[in-house]
């Protein structure tokens, strides 16, 4: 997550790989096989999980990035966006309200159909028109009109100034799709993805669920990326244990999301011959969210009391070990404008302070509710995390909490319908800027479909932050926004994680294949000597 004024040493170069061992590996031109625990399921609630207008999850975006091309992209190692499908892009005014891109010559979709400015306009307009309530439309909602000029230019006119717009154009919902394959007003059902990106994709589906995806180098690709392999196979596993066994058995060359904390710590402590463990900066966060209209948590004193009781340090150390650290703001440490707003307000965990808050607000105790989490989306340690959260709350005797886990394909629809008063979620950044940790939660059409509303955040501070081309100048606005979250507690940050990737010796480019935003960049992988 990087931009001109947000160049973080650990992010720009990632972290130097942590070598657990170095041994042999079969070479050749065969597919590089990558394992993941991400799940892609088509259901009645979500029949189009891989449509760029619908999918708003890290795993989905990791499939789309390989196949659907965007006008800009974040370069290797970070920094501000550079042209991808475009030959050039720039703001044409001093207010950051008009952004013009010129397409590369000879750009085509994988089937040979030319890519035109009208295709770009069509692709982005359909995201705005479909306006999926849990989709990524909020990223593009600031677009007022899209204008095409000649046979190679497209101009975006924005409703309000937005210096982050080039970063938003680098995200999958801004990907270019074909009119004959993606309906204008409705999602494209199923699992097929087509575009002009570095790969074509072929999903293998069983019982409405993807079990494997084969990515083959797109011979018609024209863009800024250097593709270092001919084919990559993405194998999906039910859990980290199964994925780890596949690596041990050399059935996969690399495992990514989500290694368990135990796997990473064991590999650090006891290096395996022929296996390399790569540690990378992680900017993903975990948090609790609230339906602020639910009677149980409607009074912010209840949410504040939870913030006062929860011991983030204990959760990070006991559940995640060295793979996580406590988080006291929506904006994680390592990102410009981060402040420890929650710690500044609440300090160390204190049952007596929490009891005082509830008593002052006239809240009867214990406050009873169910703490919901998803069983199969954020990794194998989630269950232990939420059991510990409930234990901390219950031991305070101010709360009486049950814990319930639900598979993601049922969990997310129930969450966005408001079925849960208190629930756990994770967040992987959309693009490298503090805005991506604030606007999706506080702006209109927020990702959580939350009823919470802060007029100061929506009407003043977020627009103010987006006017600043020099992003360091936006820090005062972001500091106020973090303080608003700590005071009102519409969400409660818990921890910030690191990333680990394990690979067989001989697979190259691993340190570039997953960036700090958890974006999977399969084109970086190759075979050679370690």
Question: Which helices and strands occur, and which strands form pairs?
Answer:
Blueprint: H1 9-12, E1 32-36, H2 58-67, E2 72-73, E3 82-83, E4 86-91, E5 98-103, H3 117-130, H4 137-140, E6 143-149, E7 153-158, H5 165-168, E8 199-206, E9 209-217, E10 231-236, H6 240-248, E11 254-255, H7 261-269, E12 275-280, E13 285-290, H8 300-309, H9 312-320, E14 324-326, H10 341-346, H11 351-360, E15 367-374, H12 382-395, E16 399-406, H13 408-416, E17 422-427, H14 435-442, H15 455-466, H16 475-488, E18 491-497, E19 499-504, E20 507-508, H17 510-513, E21 526-527
Parallel strand pairs: 1-10, 1-11, 15-16, 15-17
Antiparallel strand pairs: 2-3, 4-5, 5-7, 6-7, 8-9, 9-10, 11-19, 12-19, 13-17, 13-18, 14-18, 20-21
Helix pairs in contact: 8-11, 14-15, 15-16
Structural summary, described in words:
The two termini are 27 Å apart. This protein has a 7-stranded mixed β-sheet with strand order 8-9-10-1-11-19-12, covered by helices on one side. A 6-stranded mixed β-sheet has the order 14-18-13-17-15-16. The longest helix is centred in the N-terminal third of the chain and has 14 residues, at 117-130. The protein is globular, with a radius of gyration of 23 Å. Mean pLDDT is 91; it is low at 1-28. The chain is built from 17 helices and 21 strands. With 530 residues, it is an alpha+beta fold. Helices cover 28% and strands 21% of the residues. It has helices at 9-12, 58-67, 117-130, 137-140, 165-168, 240-248, 261-269, 300-309, 312-320, 341-346, 351-360, 382-395, 408-416, 435-442, 455-466, 475-488, 510-513, and strands at 32-36, 72-73, 82-83, 86-91, 98-103, 143-149, 153-158, 199-206, 209-217, 231-236, 254-255, 275-280, 285-290, 324-326, 367-374, 399-406, 422-427, 491-497, 499-504, 507-508, 526-527. Helix 8 (300-309) packs antiparallel against helix 11 (351-360), helix 14 runs antiparallel to helix 15 (455-466) and helix 15 runs antiparallel to helix 16 (475-488). Strand 15, helix 12 and strand 16 (399-406) form a beta-alpha-beta unit.
